[in-house]
Design goal:
Length: 303
């Protein structure tokens, strides 16, 4: 009886000896040290410098290292800044909606209708071939197609669909959105395809046996299981569109604006503190959008 009570009151101590096959704890820190160093040098420190410079003063010829809030006051109370930011957000929302629909349809077809793995590989290789060239070259290739005397207008006029060439096809918000969709749809297709390939096909068969219609299977089985894929694709689309200015400059003909294009113009005018303040605003908006989206979706399922 005393032996049992002693065992309860004084349980045996666990051995602290390390398992012979378990790697030492310091090895994990050594493995992540190179990546941590790279991220610190090329991401964290530049962001800190941008934040510091955003509080500097400036004139027409120089940057004055003084702590002022003028840049943020002018930015927050400027109607032009907010209109430009809304233009950037609007482009992002349009592109996100279109690429989500196109990416889902393409990924669904490849995942559920293409049976042979070799055909799937060839399909993705064909989609990746345009990425072997520069984005600028690919977007400029749309100019002779969408121009007033381009191939599309000539075809529409010659077939009698329209009486005169359309001006809205090029150097317009339509052209900007079209090129964005063309450039970035694959970034939505790939994570959606990855999510769909993880879906257990027996779930679809069970829903079919239970009498569910195809649209019900799509709405209540496929789409909920693709949430992480949509989230990862949305992260790519949001960051790529909101950080791009070349497409807006070339395809809008100066008729549309974006925050990054505004930052580029400020840098060309040597207004570095104002450009840094706008960069901080854009970073806050992008991180807030991504954070709000990932708060409700666990993307680790698709990683």
């Amino acid at each position: 009886m005393s032996t049992i009570s002693d065992a309860v009151t004084n349980p045996p101590r666990r051995s602290r000896r390390r398992h012979p096959n378990k790697p030492p704890a310091w090895l994990a820190y050594v493995q992540i040290a190179p990546l941590t160093l790279v991220l610190t040098l090329f991401l964290v420190l530049p962001l800190i410098m941008v934040l510091i410079v955003s509080f500097f003063d400036y004139d027409s010829f120089r940057v004055i290292p003084d702590f002022v809030l003028t840049n943020y006051k002018e930015m927050l109370f400027s109607a032009t800044i907010w209109r430009t930011l809304w233009s950037t957000i609007r482009f992002t929302l349009y592109v996100l909606a279109i690429t989500a629909v196109l990416g889902f349809l393409v990924a669904y077809y490849v995942a559920f209708y293409v049976r042979r793995p070799g055909v799937k590989t060839l399909f993705f290789l064909a989609c990746a071939v345009p990425f072997l060239t520069s984005n600028i070259i690919r977007m400029i290739s749309w100019v002779p197609y969408l121009g007033r005397n381009g191939l599309l207008n000539d075809a529409l006029v010659s077939t009698g669909v329209i009486d005169k060439p359309l001006d809205m096809l090029l150097y317009s918000p339509f052209a900007v959105i079209l090129v964005y969709v063309y450039l970035y749809t694959l970034f939505m297709v790939t994570p959606l395809f990855n999510s769909m390939m993880r879906i257990d096909k027996s779930l679809v068969e069970a829903a079919t046996d239970a009498g569910a219609k195809p649209w019900q299977i799509m709405m209540f089985v496929i789409l909920p299981l693709c949430r992480s894929g949509f989230a990862i694709g949305a992260v790519f689309i949001i960051t790529l569109v909101m950080s791009d200015y070349v497409t807006v400059r070339l395809m809008s003909g100066g008729q549309s604006a974006s925050t990054v294009l505004l930052i580029s113009n400020q840098i060309s005018l040597l207004q570095y503190p104002a450009a840094c303040a706008n960069a901080i605003l854009l970073l806050v908006v992008v991180m807030s959008a991504i954070g709000a989206m990932l708060r409700n979706v666990d993307i680790r399922r698709s990683l």
